[in-house]
TrEMBL record:
<feature type="coiled-coil region">
    <location>
        <begin position="64"/>
        <end position="91"/>
    </location>
</feature>
<protein>
    <recommendedName>
        <fullName>DUF4145 domain-containing protein</fullName>
    </recommendedName>
</protein>
<feature type="transmembrane region" description="Helical">
    <location>
        <begin position="7"/>
        <end position="30"/>
    </location>
</feature>
<keyword id="KW-0472">Membrane</keyword>
<keyword id="KW-0812">Transmembrane</keyword>
<keyword id="KW-1133">Transmembrane helix</keyword>
<keyword id="KW-0175">Coiled coil</keyword>
<feature type="transmembrane region" description="Helical">
    <location>
        <begin position="36"/>
        <end position="56"/>
    </location>
</feature>
Length: 254
């Protein structure tokens, strides 16, 4: 049996409630005498308080003590923050790698291009004939753009747009009650919870977004690396377009 924080709170609260309840019964006897009931009302109040404590979302005593218990919301917000931090670290890591490869050696770009190509082959194997046709169509439209950085930016925008469309929402409500926009990784994690079969897109998507983010920040991307990123991005877009939550479109990314 897995012991959770909620179970511990229930156990401790009810244990204290039983303690005060026994104390009241010991002093007032059972049934309680009327002359002792008023004097020992504190025992009754404490017993009821700790008995119902696990069911309270907010406890406020006067204007100087206010306790809130919103564990699930806090965990979701913390998980979203971790995802955004992971995405930021990946972006920084890719930016540093691209700068280093431009100044030191071109071999890193070649290696990354090979990795993108291999991941593209795996994604292609998970698509049906219709999905492959859509991927080829999107690839042609992306490669037709003279500005490679702009084409990579469109890949990122389209992936994010499709995720928001599939999930039907783009933000979550934080514990403070304010709407908070979800990162791409957070939205993808939610999608995988609904559709575990799409988990194979996790690493390919992160690698493509890493290249796209570098392009958005005006970093120099090797032509071979950019070309493979566009192809892999088109495959990911095609996979998302096949999801029932995404509207069928005749064109690729806008």
């Amino acid at each position: 049996m897995k012991v959770t924080k909620g179970f511990v709170l229930f156990f401790i609260s009810w244990l204290v409630a039983v303690y005060f309840g026994i104390g009241f019964v010991t002093k007032a006897s059972f049934p309680p005498k009327s002359d002792l009931l008023i004097g020992d009302a504190l025992f009754v109040g404490l017993t009821l308080f700790f008995l119902f404590l696990p069911f309270f979302d907010k406890i406020k005593i006067g204007s100087w003590i206010e306790l809130e218990r919103k564990v699930d919301e806090a965990r979701k917000e913390a998980a979203a923050a971790k995802d955004e931090l992971r995405e930021f670290k990946a972006e920084v890591r890719n930016t540093v790698s691209v700068i280093s490869s431009n100044n030191v050696s071109p071999q890193f770009n070649i290696h990354l291009a090979d990795m993108l190509r291999q991941q593209g082959e795996k994604v292609d194997q998970n698509l049906d004939q219709k999905g492959r046709a859509k991927a080829e169509e999107v690839t042609k439209e992306l490669q037709a753009d003279d500005d490679v950085n702009f084409a990579l930016a469109k890949v990122r925008i389209e992936i994010e747009r499709l995720l928001r469309m599939i999930l039907g929402r783009s933000f979550m409500v934080s514990t403070s009650g304010r709407p908070r926009f979800l990162s791409i990784n957070s939205m993808f994690d939610q999608l995988v919870q609904q559709e575990p079969s799409l988990a194979f897109l996790r690493e390919p998507m992160r690698n493509v977004l890493s290249v796209c983010n570098a392009a958005v920040h005006a970093q120099i991307i090797a032509p071979e690396q950019a070309g493979e990123a566009l192809k892999l991005g088109a495959l990911i877009i095609a996979a998302f377009k096949q999801h029932p939550g995404a509207q069928a479109e005749a064109t690729g990314p806008e």
